[in-house]
Design a protein that fits this description.
Order of helices and strands: EHEHEEHHHHHH
CATH topology of the largest domain: Glutathione S-transferase Yfyf (Class Pi), Chain A, domain 2
CATH class of the largest domain: Mainly Alpha
Radius of gyration: 17 Å
CATH architecture of the largest domain: Up-down Bundle
Shape: globular
Helix content: 40-55%
Distance between the termini: 27 Å
Strand order of the largest sheet: 2-1-3-4
Largest sheet: 4 strands, mixed
């Protein structure tokens, strides 16, 4: 398999961590959607990452779809996402909130980066969405006494939240203030110390 995308993307990083934990060999091509747009377009017309090229040449796009496919390659007991509700949809909700924050962070960054005069109203709206979602995650984590996000078993929720917080902290430090979200930030720090997070990692690089 070939994973395309840089690991400063919370979405690409989630896939890289999942591949590693599932012990699935892959080649990593750290292409940028800006600097490598032309050759990425030949593989993924949406010019987005992550993009995963399978061994048979098929191409998968969009993080959740890629991870769903990777889940099909391992036994049910080894999957990082529950298969049975309500545990499944509860975890998917947390993952969706974390992913939504990452999406807000990307939108806000490009609004600031690509416009000579960013829209104050748009930036305020995006910031409000991100901060509201962060408060939801903070409340959820603070109410839990378990080692991991859900009980005592590491899961996709831990991956999604940690990747989100790292990206947000480096791209928008004024939003990701640890003192405002102590439980959330402490959890991310603890996860970042694990070998797989250290291995699949890259400091944020502003797209050129």
């Amino acid at each position: 398999m070939i994973l395309i995308g840089q690991f400063d993307s919370p979405f690409t990083r989630r896939v890289g961590i999942t591949l590693t934990l599932y012990d699935i060999a892959f080649e990593h091509r750290p292409w940028s959607i800006m600097g490598d747009a032309d050759r990425l377009a030949e593989i993924n017309p949406l010019i987005r990452v992550p993009t995963l090229i399978l061994s048979n040449g098929d191409v998968l796009i969009e993080t959740s779809s890629i991870i769903d496919y990777l889940d099909s390659l391992v036994t049910p007991e080894n999957r990082l996402l529950p298969q049975i509700n309500p545990a499944r949809y509860r975890m998917l909700k947390t993952i969706s909130v974390a992913s939504g924050i990452s999406d807000m962070a990307v939108r806000l960054f490009y609004e600031l980066r690509l416009h000579d005069a960013p829209s104050p109203s748009y930036m305020a709206r995006i910031t409000r969405q991100a901060e509201g979602a962060l408060r939801v995650l903070e409340k959820e984590r603070a109410a839990s006494g378990s080692k991991y996000w859900f009980d005592e078993q590491f899961s996709q929720a831990d991956i999604a939240v940690t990747c989100m917080w790292r990206h947000l902290s480096e791209s928008h430090p004024a939003i990701a203030v640890p003192a405002n979200y102590p439980a959330l930030s402490a959890h991310a720090v603890e996860m970042e110390a694990q070998p797989v997070f250290e291995k699949i990692s890259q400091p944020f690089i502003a797209p050129a």
